[in-house]
């Protein structure tokens, strides 16, 4: 951003100043620590698009790396509410030392259907420091506060009250029910795809199903086939970066009726 990503390489699909963290079947969709020193690390868990989660111990390795390398972790927890398994951190601050190196942000979009309403929060602990080229420490909390009060001025009051309501007893109950509904959709999609012979990942701690496209075709070719032959729309894996080629994302954010209908189409499609 702001010109710091460098040139885009058409052949590799990568920006020259960005270090990519490949997530593939081979590493169980869990990124390895970078070999070189980086300044900023973006992590998203549960992951969009793969649905992968990290355990506390695994996340601790990232915090240790960040401390050693004076890096900052940007932790995107948009799908926190979808976590189902035990020992999976719901916030990076559950891990010791995270307050010194991690900024966490969470949107209300996926938790409470705020995609159009627009609300999110960002946690910038006072302990988190950025470093100038000369090595001077800068408080990121102060910079963030200045950015928020001069360039943004905040979310409208009525939307803030709506976000607040998601933490009330009644609000929590409604959200839970909604998420349960979407997760049931995810299970239906996972089972349907498996029955049709696809290799499927995710769908447990996330509303997404990450599937391997059949050998010999690209993500985009699979997109076209799925759209034209069975009228189902999804997201080609290559849109998420170079490691996503050969994969495809389906979403559980639909009605039960349409989810079941789509799976019936896919099952019949494979039999044809
Ligand atoms: C949806 C999403 C967001 C942000 O959503 P907004 O609607 O812009 O608040 C951020 N990160 C991930 C991984 C998402 O899927």
Provide structural commentary.
With 272 residues, the chain is of the alpha+beta class. It contains eight helices and twelve strands. The strands form four sheets. A four-stranded mixed sheet has the order 3-4-5-6. Strand 9 and strand 10 form a beta hairpin. It starts with 7 loop residues before the first strand and ends with a helix. The model has no long low-confidence stretch (mean pLDDT 96). The site of pyridoxal-5'-phosphate has 9 residues, from helix 3.
Features:
36% helix; 272 residues; 12 strands; binds pyridoxal-5'-phosphate; four-stranded antiparallel beta sheet; globular; alpha+beta
Regions with little confidence, pLDDT below 50 for 5+ residues: none
The ligands bound in this entry are: pyridoxal-5'-phosphate
Classify the helix fraction into a percent range. 25-40%
- Name the beta content range: 15-25%
Number of helices: 8
Strand order of the largest sheet: 3-4-5-6
Biggest sheet, in brief? 4 strands, mixed
By DSSP, the count of extended strands is 12
What structural class results from the helix and strand content?
alpha+beta
Could you tell me how far the N terminus lies from the C terminus, measured between alpha carbons in angstroms?
Answer: 47 Å
Mean pLDDT: 96
Gyration radius (Cα, Å) is 20 Å
Coarse shape: globular
Secondary-structure element sequence?
A: EEEHEHEHEEEHHHEEHEEH
């Amino acid at each position: 951003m702001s010109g710091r990503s460098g040139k885009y390489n058409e052949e590799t699909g990568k920006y020259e100043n960005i270090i990519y963290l490949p997530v593939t079947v081979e590493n169980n969709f869990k990124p390895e620590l970078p070999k070189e020193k980086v300044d900023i690390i973006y992590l998203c868990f549960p992951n969009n698009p793969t649905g992968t989660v990290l355990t506390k111990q695994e996340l601790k390795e990232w915090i240790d790396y960040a401390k050693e390398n004076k890096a900052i972790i940007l932790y995107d927890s948009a799908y926190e509410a979808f976590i189902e398994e035990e020992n999976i951190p719901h916030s990076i601050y559950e891990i010791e030392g995270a307050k010194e190196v991690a900024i966490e942000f969470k949107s209300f979009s996926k938790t409470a259907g705020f995609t159009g309403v627009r609300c999110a929060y960002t946690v910038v602990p006072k302990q988190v420091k950025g470093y100038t080229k000369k090595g001077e420490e800068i408080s990121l909390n102060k910079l963030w506060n200045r950015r928020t009060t001069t360039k943004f001025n905040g979310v409208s009051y009525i939307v803030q009250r709506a976000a607040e309501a998601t933490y009330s007893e009644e609000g929590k109950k409604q959200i839970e029910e909604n998420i349960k509904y979407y997760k049931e959709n995810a299970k239906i999609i996972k089972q349907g795809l498996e029955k049709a012979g696809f290799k499927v990942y995710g769908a447990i701690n996330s509303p997404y199903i990450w599937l391997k496209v059949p050998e010999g075709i690209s993500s985009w070719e699979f997109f076209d086939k799925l759209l034209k032959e069975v009228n189902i729309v999804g997201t080609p894996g290559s849109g998420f970066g170079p490691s996503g080629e050969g994969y495809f994302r389906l979403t559980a954010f639909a009605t039960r009726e349409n989810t079941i209908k789509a799976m019936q189409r896919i099952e019949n499609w494979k039999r044809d």
